[in-house]
Amino acid sequence: MATRGSNGSGNASGRADGERARGSAARANARREREREIVEATRALFDERGVQDAPMEEIARVVGINKALIYRHFASQEELFVLTVSHYLAELAERFAAVDKSLDPESQLRELSKRYLEFCRQYPAFLDCALSLMRRPFEELGERVSAGVLFRLGQTMSSCLSPLSRVLAAGAEEGVFKVSDPDFLANLLYSQGLGAMHLARVSSGVRELAPGVPSVFPVDPNDVMKTAIDMTFKYVLSTNGNHPGDGAAPAPESVTETQTD
What's the CATH number of domain 1-73, 3.55.50, 1.10.10, 2.60.40, 1.10.150? Predict the structure, then answer.
C-alpha cells in the first residue's frame, strides 16, 4: 500500500512538473511573439516616418500596449533600436542568400553589391539606423545593451557580411580579385556603401563655385550607385596579375568624400 501511495504521489508530481514546463514554454512563446510585434511596429514606423519620428509612445500605441510594458521586453530604447536594425539585416541577408552561387565571383559580387545598394535606397531608415550604430566603438555599445541583444546583432551582421567575404575569398583564390583579407574588405565595403547611399539619399553635392563661395549641385542616385559598384571593382579586380598574399592593396577612394556634413 505504501508503495502504491508513493507511486501515485510521484505521478501527480510529474504531472505538475509537466504542466509547469508547458506553462513556462507558453509564456516564453508569448513573450517572443510580443517582442516580434514591437520590433516590427518599430520598423514600420521607421519606414513610414523616419527614425527621429518614432517615439516609444507611438510604438506602444501601434502595438496596443502601455509604454511601460515595452520595458518589460527591452532593457532600454537602445536595445529596441538595435533589434530593429537586426530585423533589417535579416531581410538583407535573405536577399543575399538568393544570389545564384553557381555564378562566377565577379558576377556574384556585382549582384551582391547591387542588392545591397538597392536595399539601402528602398529603406532610408535602415541607413539612419546602421550609421547611428557606427557612431560609437563596439565596446561602448556593449555597455549599453545586453549580451544577448548584442549577440543577435552580431548574428545578423555576420549573415550579411559572410556571403560578401566568401565571394571575395573565392575570387582571390581564382586569382581574379586582389584581396588579402576578405573579412576586412567585406566590412569596409559595407561601411562605404552606407556613406555612398546617404549621398544618394541627399541627392545633392557641394562644390566651390569661387574661392569661399559654395555651390550646391544635384546628384543622381543612380549615378551614385553605379559609381559605387564601379569603384568596388576597380579596387578588387586583379587586372595586373597580382595574387592574394602579395600584401594589402591601398585604401580605395571613397564615394563619400563628396559628402558634406
Answer: 1.10.10
